[in-house]
């Protein structure tokens, strides 16, 4: 180390004013106690955890795209999904940029030879059916968009109603307790013994199949699990200090339920909803598949599957297209629900 | 349990009264006199409440009435022959599904966070997400239409049961695999498993003798929901594979307004389900004594 002669300090250093110097803080407690990362709210924290889950993020993006497309195609659909055209029935897919690939250039295998179906049907060159047409000459792609939209719509409405009824029932039962709770739980017990499928089918045989009746048929049985979960959570929170404090301060029961309990169980509700959406999609598809679902010309993924299955041996793609879409939507919702559950409650994950 | 069944019977009966159409719509034109006579014959001219009473009384002795669709065939007789295939299929599916699921779950838990685990998890997610009727059609397409190794449909022996069983087994497999994995991961990190490992037992021995036994108990609770799922599945799968089971009959009877059959199948399904749930409850108490102490005798 170089020794510095105090009498011979360089001019440069001499110029620095003395009050620029301050004694070093000897106590480092403040620094040590400093919180290094900004504090996060519950939602921010969950979002941070969710972002780490690749599968969930990819599903979220996929679902975003699917929902966006299914909404936007209300206004800009490649063709009218309900317009029938007898001249154009059962055309194979034709996509302009994939002319060279068989299966995407409007040709179909007829008795061992590739035949240009579009030429046979006199379709103008600028009219393309990207995924072909069905047995009534309707554009499969447009119907797919419509079907996805309606399936999602049914699922969302059903999930929303499930929540409304389930949460209300669960909150009342859990918060009031006592005899009310006992009676309400007995009712639930009996109701849950009835197989939901049977109720759904009965409902649909009695009422005219339509979006509303399908939603109702699903809601009648599906709110039960939500009510149970909400009740269990309410019971857990009811005796916690913050609720007791609110009670002591004279808050009404309704306000306690809405302002104190509901926000604290919102994550459980969201996760449960995310699981109920794919199951609603499944049941809609299932009911439509056995012929109890929507009536034509309305399309849902289930009715598309049903129609595709009828001609499955000859035109398998009419079945595969809705089947793949349905599966992708279900997988995405399930993965996202899994991700959300882990994100909201990291303790659940081993 | 009995209340549940009675409730179901009642709901079904009164919902059926609301159904559109009469039992004779499928038949040739009938004169009003003939209809009145037929109504009298089947007791449809009496007030609804009386009909309900007769219906309940008959129900107790296992008389479900006479099918509207098949002339003069008692519904009970119609269904008895159909229970066999449905039950066989359901049993095969649940056994096959849970066995494969348990195996997948064990492997996934033993090789936690490796590609094997990812693969098993992926299979479980696929099994849970893809509807079983899509699976059924896929299997039919691959094995029956393209490879031609298995029969495409009908019910003529064991080979005919393979494809529907696999299609039905997918969701039990997925559910039990997920369940067993979570349980096993927990158990495999416990002290007694460490001890067993320290004593020099092989990984498989530890997993099966110490891990699996303790993971299996909660799996029994899963049987109830699984049975419900199977029932839903059997409705479509039986239709796709043209299996003469209850599910197929149910769909048919809905299409033909065959009220007595619809009611009978509804009650049969509910009874089966309630029965399965009761068995599960009893089994659970039998296997895990801790439950018996705290829980009362509720059915």
Fold and architecture overview:
The complex is a heterodimer of chains A (350) and B (299). By secondary structure, chain A is mainly α. Chain A folds into 2 domains: 43-79 and 136-344, MetI-like (MetI-like fold); 92-128, no CATH class. Chain A has helices at residues 11-14, 29-33, 42-52, 54-72, 117-120, 140-176, 178-193, 196-206, 211-238, 241-248, 253-289, 301-310, 317-344; strands at 107-110, 113-116. In chain A, strands 1-2 form a two-stranded antiparallel ribbon. Chain A is flat and about 105 Å long. Chain A starts with 10 loop residues before the first helix and ends in a 6-residue tail after the last helix. By secondary structure, chain B is mostly helical. Residues 294-299 of chain B have low confidence and may be disordered. Chain B has helices spanning 2-18, 32-41, 48-60, 75-110, 115-129, 132-146, 159-188, 191-198, 203-240, 246-255, 259-287, 289-294. In chain B, helix 4 (75-110) runs antiparallel to helix 5, helix 5 (115-129) packs across helix 7 (159-188) and helix 8 (191-198) crosses helix 9. Helices cover 76% and strands 0% of the residues of chain B. The N and C termini of chain B lie close together (6 Å). Chain B contains 12 helices and no strands. The chains are: A mainly alpha (350), B mainly alpha (299). The A-B interface holds A 190, 193-199, 201-203, 205-206, 278, 282, 285-286, 289-292, 305, 309, 312-313, 316, 319, 323, 326-327, 330-331, 333-335, 350 and B 1, 3-4, 7-8, 11-12, 15, 18-19, 125-126, 128-131, 133-134, 137-138, 141, 145, 182, 185-186, 189, 228, 231-232, 235-236, 239-240, 250-251, 254-255, 262, 266, 269-270, 273-274, 277.
């Amino acid at each position: 180390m170089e020794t510095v002669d105090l009498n011979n300090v360089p001019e440069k250093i001499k110029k620095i004013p003395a009050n620029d110097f301050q004694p070093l803080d000897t106590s480092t407690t403040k620094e040590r106690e400093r919180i290094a990362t900004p504090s996060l709210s519950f939602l921010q924290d969950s979002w941070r955890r969710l972002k780490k889950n690749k599968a969930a993020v990819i599903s979220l993006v996929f679902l975003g795209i699917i929902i966006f497309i299914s909404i936007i195609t209300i206004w800009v659909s490649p063709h009218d999904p309900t317009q029938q055209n007898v001249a154009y029935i059962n055309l194979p897919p034709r996509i302009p940029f994939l002319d060279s690939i068989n299966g995407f250039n409007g040709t179909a295998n007829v008795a061992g030879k590739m035949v240009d179906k579009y030429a046979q049907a006199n379709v103008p060159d600028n009219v393309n059916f990207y995924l072909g047409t069905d047995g009534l000459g309707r554009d499969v792609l447009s119907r797919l968009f419509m079907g996805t939209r309606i399936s999602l719509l049914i699922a969302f409405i059903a999930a929303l109603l499930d929540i409304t009824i389930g949460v209300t029932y669960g909150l009342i039962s859990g918060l009031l307790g006592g005899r009310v709770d006992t009676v309400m739980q007995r009712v639930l017990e009996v109701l849950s013994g009835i197989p939901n499928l049977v109720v759904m089918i009965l409902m649909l045989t009695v009422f005219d199949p339509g979006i509303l009746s399908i939603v109702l048929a699903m809601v009648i049985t599906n709110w039960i699990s939500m009510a149970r979960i909400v009740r269990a959570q309410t019971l857990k929170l009811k005796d916690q200090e913050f609720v007791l404090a609110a009670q002591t301060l004279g808050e009404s029961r309704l306000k306690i339920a809405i302002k104190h309990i509901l926000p604290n169980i919102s994550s459980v509700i969201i996760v449960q909803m995310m699981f109920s959406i794919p199951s609603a999609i499944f049941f809609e598809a299932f009911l439509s598949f056995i012929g109890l679902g929507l009536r034509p010309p309305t399309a849902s993924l289930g009715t598309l599957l049903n129609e595709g299955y009828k001609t499955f041996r000859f035109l398998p793609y009419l079945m595969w297209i809705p089947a793949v879409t349905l599966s992708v939507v279900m997988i995405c919702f399930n993965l996202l629900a899994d991700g959300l559950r882990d994100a909201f409650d990291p303790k659940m994950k081993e | 349990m009995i209340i549940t069944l009675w409730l179901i019977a009642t709901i079904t009966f009164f919902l059926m009264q609301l159904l559109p159409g009469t039992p004779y719509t499928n038949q040739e034109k009938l004169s009003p006199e003939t209809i009145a006579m037929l109504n009298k014959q089947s007791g449809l001219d009496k007030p609804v409440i009386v009909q309900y009473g007769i219906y309940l009384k008959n129900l107790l002795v296992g008389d479900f009435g006479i099918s509207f669709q098949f002339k003069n065939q008692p519904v009970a007789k119609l269904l008895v022959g159909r229970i066999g295939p449905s039950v066989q299929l359901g049993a095969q599916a649940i056994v096959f599904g849970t066995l494969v699921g348990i195996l997948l779950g064990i492997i996934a838990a033993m090789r936690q966070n490796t590609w094997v685990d990812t693969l098993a998890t992926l299979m479980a997610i696929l099994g849970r997400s893809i509807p079983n009727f899509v699976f059924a059609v896929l299997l039919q397409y691959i094995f029956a239409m393209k490879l031609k190794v298995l029969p495409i449909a009908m019910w003529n022996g064991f080979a005919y049961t393979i494809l529907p069983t696999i299609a039905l087994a997918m969701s039990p497999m997925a559910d039990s695999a997920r369940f067993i994995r979570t349980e096993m991961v927990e158990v495999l990190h416990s002290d007694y498993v460490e001890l067993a490992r320290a004593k020099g037992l092989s990984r498989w021995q530890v997993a099966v003798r110490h891990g699996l036994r303790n993971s299996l108990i909660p799996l029994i609770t899963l049987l109830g929901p699984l049975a419900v799922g199977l029932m839903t599945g059997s409705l479509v799968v039986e239709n796709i594979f043209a299996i003469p089971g209850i599910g197929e009959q149910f769909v048919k009877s809905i299409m033909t307004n065959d009220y007595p059959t619809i009611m009978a199948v509804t009650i049969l399904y509910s009874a089966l389900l309630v029965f399965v749930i009761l068995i599960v409850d009893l089994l659970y108490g039998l296997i895990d004594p801790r439950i018996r102490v705290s829980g009362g005798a509720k059915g």
